[in-house]
Amino acid sequence: MKKITGVIRKSKYKSVKKELSDLGINFFFNSDLNCDCNIPESYTLKGMLFPTLEHVRCSFYVVVPDTLEYQTIQTILQTCYTKDFGDGMIFVSDINESYRIDDQQLGEQALDFNTI
Questions:
Q1: pTM of the full predicted structure?
Q2: What are the structural domains, with CATH classification, of the chain?
């Protein structure tokens, strides 16, 4: 199993969630990202002016079977790509075990929330 974490534009989250739901991935963890690092209202990068509000980010992660890893990553890449600087990042980690507490399901079966 893989844990796929995305840090993306907040405006793209609903689209990503819909596309991943179409793949059968229906359990998401997400949070808004706030940076308290004195970012000005706008900044210039490579000669372009960027309003900070356009760069509000959110983080989410999903745990998927190994068979869905590539398709999940490609879906996130295609959905979040805007041709602009700062579209986000994707991180992939291995998950060795998973347990669903309520019905004691183990491994990939614990990821199947259609059986609840």
A1: 0.77
A2: 2-115 (3.30.70.120)
